[in-house]
Amino acid sequence: MNEIAAAVAGQYITSSLQGKNVLIFGGTSGIGLSAAIQAKAAGANVTVAGSDAARAEALSKEHGFSGWRAADVTKPEAIDAALSNIGKVDHLVLLAGSFVAGKVLDADIAHLHRAFDERVWAAVHVLRAIGENLAGDASITLISGALADRPNAYGVAVLAAASAAMEALGRGLALELAPRRVNILSPGPIDTPILAKALGDGRDAYVASLKQSLPLHRLGTADEAGAAVVFLMANGWMNGAVLNVDGGSRLV
Fold first, then answer.
1. pLDDT, tens only, 40-54
2. Superfamily in which the 2-191+221-244 domain is placed by CATH
3. Cα separation of 123 and 111, whole Å?
4. Beta pairing class for 21-25 and 242-245
């Protein structure tokens, strides 16, 4: 029965995404790249966007994506240039964003601004740049994170605020842009390059300690989170929702 259910689910996703145009910001690594690969496997025409043009082009060729774009999402003019000839977009996924850490009394303010610039304002600028090319029945998937529910005392207050803001933005856009659908992915600890970049040499010790406290005693994978992105694209009845993909980490 499980095999039958899986086959039916796969057929549903394929029928929903076949021939659709998917644009994924943050699609050159981690969750975004996995979502791009899975969406292409379901028959979608996938364009990935990242900050590094050479990497975006190389990955597009490697995986057979339909195209690529490069832009610093904190710069509206770069977004406009990257999307000047984008064409119709059926599914827009916005996963770009770095791990912006720093205590509010000590950190450089310009650095802290990036938490909102890479998320809230980037989403606004991308939507405006796409404009009428965003399909009338499009889906939009934003990203927040477990910090929106459970901030800590280690310099993530502004990042947590930006994550919570993405959830509020998503709910508002679900009404403002209707009948387009807008959902938010909220991942917990996922083993992606951004984790290693944020933690550096302390990654392995941190992960080992974290695994002991998590209900499933492991981190999530980019493929698991990427599959959740594809689900939000394909399921036409998901709207204004926050999908927690965190292995229950918000419960402990």
1. 999 999 999 999 999
2. NAD(P)-binding Rossmann-like Domain (3.40.50.720)
3. 18
4. unpaired
Both structure tokens of 238: 């998901």
Cβ-proximal residues to 97 (8 Å cutoff; 6+ apart), any chain = 26, 115, 118, 119, 122, 143
- The Cα 125–Cα 72 span in angstroms is 11
Q: How many CA atoms lie within 13 A of 103 on its CB side?
A: 5
Both tokens of residue 251? 């419960």
- The whole-angstrom separation of Cα 163 and Cα 196 is 20
Which of 216, 232, 207 minimizes the C-alpha distance to 91?
232
Mean pLDDT, range 109-115, rounded to an integer: 98
Tell whether the model's pLDDT for residue 18 goes beyond 70: yes
pLDDT in tens, 130-175: 999 999 999 999 999 999 999 999 999 999 999 999 999 999 999 9
